[in-house]
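Please go through the sequence line and C-alpha coordinate line underneath and see whether the fold suits the sequence. See right below:
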Amino acid sequence: MSTAALAYLAGPISDEPGPGLFLRIILVASVVGVGLLAWLILRAGRER
Protein backbone atom coordinates (compact mmCIF):
# COMPACT_ATOMS: atom_id res chain seq x y z
CA MET A 1 0.00 0.00 0.00
CA SER A 2 1.35 3.40 -0.87
CA THR A 3 1.51 6.42 1.41
CA ALA A 4 -1.13 8.19 -0.68
CA ALA A 5 -3.52 5.27 -0.25
CA LEU A 6 -3.00 5.28 3.52
CA ALA A 7 -3.59 9.04 3.65
CA TYR A 8 -6.80 8.58 1.65
CA LEU A 9 -8.00 5.83 4.00
CA ALA A 10 -7.13 7.94 7.05
CA GLY A 11 -9.18 10.89 5.80
CA PRO A 12 -12.51 9.95 7.43
CA ILE A 13 -10.79 9.10 10.75
CA SER A 14 -9.52 12.59 11.49
CA ASP A 15 -10.70 16.17 10.98
CA GLU A 16 -7.09 17.29 10.61
CA PRO A 17 -5.58 17.56 7.15
CA GLY A 18 -3.49 14.52 6.34
CA PRO A 19 -3.14 11.30 8.29
CA GLY A 20 -2.52 12.90 11.74
CA LEU A 21 -4.39 10.67 14.21
CA PHE A 22 -4.13 7.56 12.02
CA LEU A 23 -0.37 7.97 11.71
CA ARG A 24 0.02 8.41 15.48
CA ILE A 25 -1.98 5.23 16.12
CA ILE A 26 0.15 3.28 13.64
CA LEU A 27 3.40 4.60 15.16
CA VAL A 28 2.36 3.77 18.74
CA ALA A 29 1.16 0.31 17.75
CA SER A 30 4.39 -0.42 15.90
CA VAL A 31 6.56 0.73 18.84
CA VAL A 32 4.56 -1.44 21.23
CA GLY A 33 4.81 -4.37 18.81
CA VAL A 34 8.57 -4.01 18.46
CA GLY A 35 8.91 -3.85 22.24
CA LEU A 36 6.86 -7.02 22.71
CA LEU A 37 8.81 -8.81 19.99
CA ALA A 38 12.14 -7.84 21.57
CA TRP A 39 10.89 -8.99 24.98
CA LEU A 40 9.79 -12.36 23.57
CA ILE A 41 13.10 -12.88 21.76
CA LEU A 42 15.12 -11.99 24.84
CA ARG A 43 12.96 -14.22 27.03
CA ALA A 44 13.30 -17.15 24.64
CA GLY A 45 17.08 -16.73 24.59
CA ARG A 46 17.29 -16.81 28.39
CA GLU A 47 15.47 -20.13 28.70
CA ARG A 48 18.25 -22.09 26.95
Q: What stands out?
A: The radius of gyration is 16 Å. Residues 20-46 form the longest helix (27 residues).
